[in-house]
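G., before I forget:
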Amino acid sequence: MSDILEILLSASFWAAVIRIAAPLVLATMGELICERAGVLNLGIEGIMVIGAFTGWLAVYQGMPLWGGVGVAMSAGMLFGLLHATLTVPFGLSQHVVGLGVTLLATSTSSFAYRLALPEVTSPPKIEPFQPLDLPILSDLPFLGEVFFTQTAFTWFAFGSAVLVALVLFRTPLGLAVRAAGENPSAVEAQGLSVTGLRMGAVIFGSGLMAMGGAFLTLSAFSSFFFEMVNGRGWICVALVVFGAWMPGKAVLGAILFAAFDALQIRLQQTPLGADLPYQVFLMAPYVLSILALILMSRRAEVPAALMTPYNKGER
Amino acid sequence: MAVAFKAKLWNIGAEAQLYAGAIVAVLLGTGAVPSPFVLPVTAVFAMLAGALVLLGPALLKTRLGVDEVVTTLLFNFIMLLFVSYLLEGPMKDPMGMGWPKSEALLKEARLPRIAEGLRLHWGFVLAMIAAVVVYVIERRTSFGFEMRAVGSNFGAARFAGVPVNRVLIQTALLSGGLAALAGWSEVAGLKGHLSQDLSPGFGYTGIIVAMLALLNPLAVIGTAIFVAGIFVGSDAMSRAAGVPTYIADMLLASALLFMVLAILLTKMRVVRG
């Protein structure tokens, strides 16, 4: 037990928690926007992969880091457009299309990676985002290390969550998006386009997911490899449910989740880790996600029109 | 050719059930069961294991309304790690030269080849039989009728008195069992041992096959052969022209999306106003 306590009290642990949570926050916000508008986006896993890949490739080819983030976002929005077109105006099964988008985006990334770099054995590295060095703040004991040695991208991730929450709950646009997921006929009665709102939400949300993927290559690691997203997308879908479709709770969920993830990595090095096979620790995030889904299932307030295609003029 | 197995029913955790079947095949096929019965016994237990793996998510769906797509997807990752643990711990082959793979199956526990010199094994025939059996169940039994009713109109089925939850769970058991049988056949027919690269995403390919076949079990046979052809072809292309093999995955993913779109377009009718 003293091992766990020691870990929980160290500043480096909490710094790691925030670092691990950042990509999850971005992607979870993306999924949350889609689902609030009434569209389940299971393309998330593949869109994160394409974001990680295109962002990395752009920087590797000499673009500035923020340029890479922009490229990743555009690529994500492109696949978001595909998902939105098939599910919103055509009203196809959101499950099937989502998985199709994931498979297409993942295989496109692998294919393009092999085309761009046919003959490499170890993935080439780029110069990733560096930790900010703020005067005074970074030198604060504990807090300085936890909050003020993060990269600019981390700040951007949490900032975008705040922005999403503000837009969704404090602006007419946010109200319209949420209404499109709750009662689309009412939106149409107000003279707004449900199709437009839903497509916009899915495209923008997919952009956020792709940036979450780009975080992995541009800030967390410095190279791209297959399997790097490794189910994070599906975990984000679970986090949206866990957060009861509320941005604030979803961010808390992401931080809680990241804390468990950071803890399991550190526990592997303690005597406990020597007794248990390491796979048990690696399993923990997925088991945790399923548990979260079970726990929240009873009182989750699902957007009423989630996964229901809307056809104008149809009852 | 073993791809012909992989597509029976719509369920995204097929990867996990496939490995469950494979684990059982190795557990029982390395000497635990006397030799004359070893093939049928391992097959039956493999199917039971696969059904059990899918029972969890199915119960969660019917009891608590938890989306089964996400839970089965997460289960795939858990299962892969479990296999990795087994291969490095309890089931590691002492003669494996450090490679993480299990002990080899006994000769009696393996499916024979159809003919000498061919890689084609009886698993392929079994897959065809399975597809026909599933077709008969779906079209010619009351359970199959209820299954289709639940699938096409959940509310109407419940209103008509179909025990919706029971049908969902029974369907899940059947689906999990078949996916596990695929894992069993892959071990007993082809590999002869359990390893972590047993399935290069067969569970996911199965989804594509099932959709391309319009969920018709008989069409699955043809579709699976077609899809397998694309994979084998991409390998050959990669060797001959240096095109990355991932082109097969891209093709299939696009095929899936175009297919669902095409189904929709065939349903559209020109309305004269």
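Confidence is low (pLDDT under 50) at residues 1-10 of chain B. Chain B has one domain: 2-203.

More on Monday.
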